């Protein structure tokens, strides 16, 4: 589940892993040109993606429960607010050296039991 959360944080392109934006666009520079409705749509879609990730996570890992979805959304907000922005080389190193190894060991153990 922890590896899944790391993947979700990196896929949501928010604070710890906001590598899709360059340094000059970190203060929402990508959406400065938009105003009112288009600006609202861009940010609503970003938060909708976070909600869908939370919803799918709890359908996959646990049975569907509205309280758990809200807890996962709060976990997203806390993780985005408490972590600083990671350097790209450190993030890639951690993912390849630890996360992929843990996932592969888990899959090997899972399929060896079948």
UniProtKB/TrEMBL annotation:
InterPro entries: NADH_UbQ_OxRdtase_su1/FPO. The keyword Transmembrane applies. GO terms for biological process: aerobic respiration. GO terms for cellular component: mitochondrial inner membrane. It holds the Pfam family NADHdh. Its EC number is 7.1.1.2. It comes from the Eukaryota. It is found in: Membrane; Mitochondrion inner membrane. Belongs to the complex I subunit 1 family. PANTHER family: NADH DEHYDROGENASE SUBUNIT 1, NADH-UBIQUINONE OXIDOREDUCTASE CHAIN 1. This is NADH-ubiquinone oxidoreductase chain 1. It comes from Schistosoma haematobium. The gene is NAD1.
